[in-house]
Design goal:
The protein is of the alpha/beta class and 463 residues long. Helices cover 46% and strands 14% of the residues. The chain is built from 19 helices and 14 strands. The protein has a six-stranded parallel sheet with strand order 3-2-1-4-5-6, sandwiched between helices. The protein has a six-stranded parallel sheet with strand order 11-10-9-12-13-14, with helices on both faces. Helix 19 links the parallel strand 13 and strand 14. Helix 5 packs parallel to helix 6, helix 11 runs antiparallel to helix 12 and helix 13 packs across helix 14. The chain is globular, with a radius of gyration of 24 Å. The model has no long low-confidence stretch (mean pLDDT 97). The structure holds nicotinamide-adenine-dinucleotide and uridine-5'-diphosphate-xylopyranose. The site of uridine-5'-diphosphate-xylopyranose has 19 residues, from helix 9.
Length: 463
């Protein structure tokens, strides 16, 4: 089948960048990204490319090139479904906040809504692609909805999980380590797989496009995220031991990372991992294992989350203890709020939980993040429902300028590894702070010895 029209349901962190790159690389294919969120679609269509809703280095340029040519953002979901030969489902799959599996299982209500809408609209055969991260065997449920329309339309379901990381989304999409496509082992299933392979083959080498059965593909995504997060919790566990023994976690990470069997990536000790994926996907994995009665498997992976929660709490405890066991009415400056650098995404950011702990101790938190607004910071804290919105608003001080943010502070905590933090005039910052001036570097990005020379009391993670 020659593909000329693609539609993607969900214009979020995955749908937006992924479809922009497909459109850029496949000018012969019309790509329409649809969403129910009118504000988000309006932002994607904003003439000023600085206003597109997702900040990713290089994304504005790609959207600028393809938008209006063969890339369209729209709220007309039904029309886009009707016209497309391939429909990607890239909607959110958050952790359930109600009912059975609350706090663990993935909430599939948005996925099911998409499947029902496709079933209602489609008049000719379609390939439906799971782009969202889903529990293994979700394709079965989607298929059951699509196969019961009674209108004779044939659907093929593929699983094509996305491995991009935020902050490097464009690079990851342009040069993926691999593209994974899972589908039915039937002849029609294989044809559908080949149709999607042909789309990616416009820019991805054939040996990087891996095809599998549906269940392997669905489960590989959860497995990849679990393994990645597990490395961070492993090194963070070691960071605590380093602090007790005089070892330095950066040196330990370097030493073990040079073993080619271990590898050097994803061994950076930190205040704890954040982001919308790791915690949600591991909780989902734990839930799935439990639902099959595999309690040892479930307990094994749950430990990754337990360690991460411990690491975040340990960081806030260290701040309180070091500041003479009280932070009440003290100004603590947060450099960074996003869950990692080069993104405006704050979902599950460690900063939220550390701030929550410190506000419980009556601290005043002054936040500076180059890409995150005060509105977003307050929304993140209000979402936890720990206290009233008014109390949160009174506890968070926001500044446009990092030097002003640090002025008069008792301590600085680095929560995000933005490059610009390293370049600051740290002498100027020191001069404007309360003494002793403390720095808690939750990302190990600052030059600790240079800071100590200025006069700071510097504490990194794991040394
Ligand atoms: P997101 O919340 O940024 O975007 C999802 C979008 O889907 C929202 O704009 C929402 O309005 C829209 N939507 C929901 N239901 C809809 C419906 N019925 N019709 C039309 N639009 C609808 O989420 P995201 O970060 O892009 O993640 C999407 C999926 O991709 C999740 O399953 C996630 O686990 C997975 N994923 C995310 C990342 C990442 O880095 N964020 C990476 C890989 C995979
Ligand atoms: C992750 C996966 O990397 C990606 O493949 C998947 O598609 C989505 O989930 P993302 O969450 O966007 O991507 O960013 P990632 O770079 O994985 O970082 C996640 C968190 O771990 C961040 O808070 C980051 O700061 C932290 N991290 C990462 C560490 O603390 N140490 C590390 O060594 C690496």
């Amino acid at each position: 089948m020659k593909i000329t029209k693609i539609c993607c349901i969900g214009a979020g962190y995955v749908g937006g960048p992924t479809m922009a790159v497909i459109a850029q690389k496949c000018p012969q294919i019309q790509v329409t990204v649809v969403d129910l969120n009118e504000e988000r679609i309006a932002a994607w269509n904003d003439e000023n490319l600085d206003n597109i809703p997702i900040y990713e280095p290089g994304l504005d340029k790609i959207v600028g090139e393809a938008r209006g040519r063969n890339l369209f953002f729209s709220t007309h979901v039904e029309k886009a479904i009707d016209e497309a030969q391939i429909i990607f489902i890239s909607v959110n799959t958050p952790t359930k906040t109600y009912g059975k599996g609350k706090g663990m299982a993935a909430d599939l209500k948005y996925i099911e809504l998409c499947a029902r809408q496709i079933a209602k609209i489609a008049k000719d055969n379609k390939i439906v692609v799971e782009k969202s991260t889903l529990p293994v065997r979700t394709a079965e449920a989607i298929k059951s909805i699509l196969d019961n329309t009674g209108n004779g339309v044939q659907f093929q379901i593929l699983s094509n999980p996305e491995f991009l990381a935020e902050g490097t989304a464009v690079q990851d999409l342009l040069n993926p380590d691999r593209i994974l496509i899972g589908g039915d082992t039937t002849e029609d299933g294989q044809k559908a797989i080949q149709a999607l392979v042909a789309v990616y083959a416009n820019w991805v080498a054939a040996d990087k496009i891996l095809t599998t059965n549906l269940w392997s593909s669905e489960l590989s995504k959860l497995t990849a995220n679990a393994f990645l997060a597990q490395r961070i919790s492993s090194i963070n566990a070691m960071s605590e031991l380093c602090e007790k023994t005089g070892a330095d976690v950066n040196e330990v990470a370097k030493a073990i990372g040079m073993d080619s069997r271990i590898g050097s990536k994803f061994l950076k000790a930190s205040v704890g991992f954040g982001g919308s994926c790791f915690q949600k996907d591991i909780l989902n994995l734990v839930y799935i294992a439990k639902s099959y009665g595999l309690s040892e498997v479930a307990d094994y992976w749950e430990q990754v989350i337990i360690m991460n929660d411990h690491q975040k709490r340990r960081f806030s405890n260290t701040i309180v203890q070091t500041l003479y066991n009280t932070v009440s009415d003290k100004k603590i400056c947060f450099l960074g709020w996003a869950f990692k650098k080069d993104t405006n995404d704050t979902r599950e950011s460690a900063a939220i939980y550390v701030a929550d702990d410190l506000i419980n101790e009556n601290a005043k938190i002054a936040v500076y993040d180059p890409k995150v607004s005060r509105k977003k910071i307050l929304a993140d804290l209000d979402y936890l429902e720990t206290r009233t919105a008014e109390k949160n608003a009174n506890s968070i001080l926001s500044f446009e300028d990092p030097y002003e943010t640090c002025e008069g502070a008792h301590a600085i905590a680095v929560l995000t590894e933005w490059d610009e933090f390293v370049q600051y005039d740290w002498q100027r910052i020191y001069d404007s702070m309360q003494k002793p001036a403390f720095v808690f570097d939750g990302r190990n990005i600052l030059n600790g010895s240079a800071l100590k020379e200025i006069g700071f009391v510097y504490q990194g993670i794991g040394s």
